[in-house]
Each structure stands twice: as C-alpha cells, then as structure tokens.
Design brief:
By secondary structure, this protein is an alpha/beta fold. The chain contains 16 helices and twelve strands. The chain is globular, with a radius of gyration of 21 Å. The two termini are 41 Å apart.
C-alpha cells in the first residue's frame, strides 16, 4: 500500500490522491491501492479520471473494482439501472476475496454484499420481526416527547453504555427518553438491568431485551428491525443512535429541531450507495410518513439479510433504499442533518480506533 495515499485518505485528501495517481501506472497498483484511488476519485468527483480509465482499461484483477466506482458515478446521476448492473457485477469477486488485501483493509467493499436496487413485493423475508421485551412498562416511555433508541449485544452494552447513559442524564432537559435494547443479553447484563432499571427510569432511561442471530451485521441493524413496532407502541418519534454515542448538548435542542419532521439523517453525495446515508443518527417521526420509513428500512434488512455473507453496511443500504423511494416525493418533510450542525452535533459518535476512549465497564 502506498503509505502516502493511506495518510492522505485518512485526512480526506481525495483530490490530492487522484492527482498523485497521474504519476503511477495502474499496472503498478495493488488491489488495495486501486480501491483507495477509486473511492478517492469518486469522492472528489474526478470524472476525468473515470473517462481516462474507461478509455485505457485497468489490468483484469482491478477491472471489477473499477466497475464498482464507475457504477457509483452513474448512481450519483440517478441512472440506477446502469449503476446497479456495474455495482452488482463486482459482487462475486468481493464475496470471494473479501475486503482485506495483504493486511490493508478496504472496509467499504463489504457494502456490495447487501446492495440491491429492487425488492420484489412477493420476495420472502429472511429475518423474523424480533420480539421486544421491555424491562420497564412501555407506557412509562410513551409520555416522552422523543425516544432515543440504541441497541447492542452484551459486549458493546458493557463497554459503551455507561458513557451514553451518563451523558444523557447530564444533558436531558426535556421529556426525552433513552431506550437501550440489549440483544441476546447475558445473565450479568440481565442482573445489571434488574438492579438499576427502577432508579434510571425516573430519569428517563429504559431497557429492553431482544433475541436474534449472533453476528455483527444483525447487531448493527437490529434497531431498525424494531422501529415499526416501537412507533406503534410509543406516542413519539424515534431517534436511532449507536450505543457508543455521547450527548454533548441539551436534548431539547435536538427534540425541538426535529419535532415537525417525518425523517432526518445525514446524507452526502458522491459516495458508494451504502455510504450516502449514515445510520448512526436517524430520526423517524410519529407520522404516517415516519411509520412508512420504518417499514421500508425494516423490510429491506429482513429481506436482504444473508448470514453466509459479510453484510456490514446492511443498515445503510436499507436507509439508502428508503432515500431513493422519497427523492421525488416533495410531501416528505425531510432534513439532511449534515446541513444543520447545531442539531447534528448534539450527539457525538467517534469512529474507528477513537471509540476506545469511550470504553468503560458496567460490570
């Protein structure tokens, strides 16, 4: 891997990588090099690079990856049929070779394993709707103006929920609630919840248990599987967050900013489909459109899920699938959180190795 590109990529210097690539023949690039370059060319909107590579194709071992990034340019221009043909053509090699090349990870490649353009109306769902077992009566949450929902397996719950709970208690200044759903809880997790649920419920923190497949893709997507039934049970909107999130400003700032909306999440252009919408902060309003959003994303995840594949980004593919369904519907009251930092930044979610700074043992 070209170390210069790796450091530039981390600094989001995508244009600089694409410019530097002019001094290197594609034949000298490793698969990891080419994927860093391809995503950089996409993110920097370097259409001239795509034209140049199209006229002088890369070596055969790199060609499927070029199709992926070329397909994403068609996707950006709403040419979804052509885009999907190209994107899906690289699925076999990615499923076979994975996303790590000589120790260098290209994690974004995993998204192709859960990408699809269409879900047939008669297509069977793979996952069942998980049962939500409240550890406190859900009626206590129903008085909330907004419910923040996080879900995690026991390991992540143990590592990260202490920071989430503490920061919520510090910044809660309205009738918001925090619901933490533990997937496949251990006996120790059940005991901790039993010992603390009454005390924390007074301050708006609640817990639930649910059960499902034991893998990271399911854990990451589980809260979206729960969304339709939660919106039916609660008399408020649901704001999905990661369990390794911290509140950094009063909850009222966020709840007032989104109370009139059907949907809100962070969206960015010129990325792969599963990178366009970020699943770490997603609001679904208690409106007909918000309920439909919950159903669309839940159905996508339950239908496309495949335990035999590495489907990290399943949740973000589901979110992007929903975004496509509303992009021509002006009646949806949607806000891109990327454009409203005073609301977006109420919640802080570190990425990658930075998460370790938040780790703390509950028990």
């Amino acid at each position: 891997m070209k170390k210069l590109w790796q450091s530039m990529f981390r600094a989001e210097q995508y244009s600089e990588i694409t410019l530097d690539a002019q001094h290197h023949s594609l034949k000298t690039l490793t698969i990891a090099d080419f994927n860093y370059l391809g995503l950089s060319a996409l993110a920097s909107q370097s259409l001239q690079w795509f034209e140049a590579v199209s006229s002088d194709p890369p070596p055969p071992e790199l060609a499927p990856y070029f199709n992926l990034y070329l397909g994403a340019t068609y996707y950006q221009m709403h040419e979804y049929d052509k885009a999907s043909e190209l994107i899906e053509s690289c699925r076999p090699i990615i499923a076979g070779k994975g996303h790590v090349f000589n120790g260098i990870g290209c994690s974004w490649l995993r998204g192709v394993n859960s990408y699809t353009q269409h879900i047939g109306t008669a297509q069977a769902t793979i996952l069942a709707t998980p049962e939500l077992i409240f550890q406190s009566p859900h009626e206590q949450i129903s008085v909330a103006k907004l419910c923040f929902l996080a879900s995690a397996d026991t390991a992540y719950f143990t590592k990260f929920s202490s920071g989430l709970i503490r920061s919520f208690l510090e910044y809660r200044n309205d009738e918001s609630a925090l619901l933490i759903c533990i997937i496949n809880p251990s006996d120790d997790a059940k005991l901790w919840v039993a010992e603390h649920k009454s005390e924390l419920a007074v301050s708006g923190v609640f817990f639930a248990h649910t059960f499902g497949p034991d893998n990271k893709t399911y854990y990451a997507s589980s809260r979206f599987l729960l969304a339709p039934q939660l919106l039916e049970l609660l008399d408020c909107g649901v704001f999905h967050i990661d369990v390794d999130t911290l509140f950094t400003a009063p909850t009222r700032t966020l709840s007032l900013g989104i109370e009139h909306l059907d949907a809100a999440f962070t969206e960015q252009d010129w990325r792969l489909p599963w990178q366009k919408c970020q699943a770490g902060k997603v609001f679904m309003g208690n409106t007909p459109a918000g309920h439909l959003m919950a159903e669309v994303i839940s159905t996508y995840c339950k239908t496309v899920y495949n335990e035999a594949l590495d489907q990290w980004f399943l949740d973000q593919n589901g979110l992007e699938y929903y975004r496509r369904t509303i992009e021509l519907d002006p009646s949806i009251n949607f806000v891109n959180l990327h454009e409203i930092p005073e609301i977006r930044d109420v919640l802080f979610s570190p990425t990658g190795s930075k998460k370790k700074a938040l780790e703390g043992k509950l028990f």
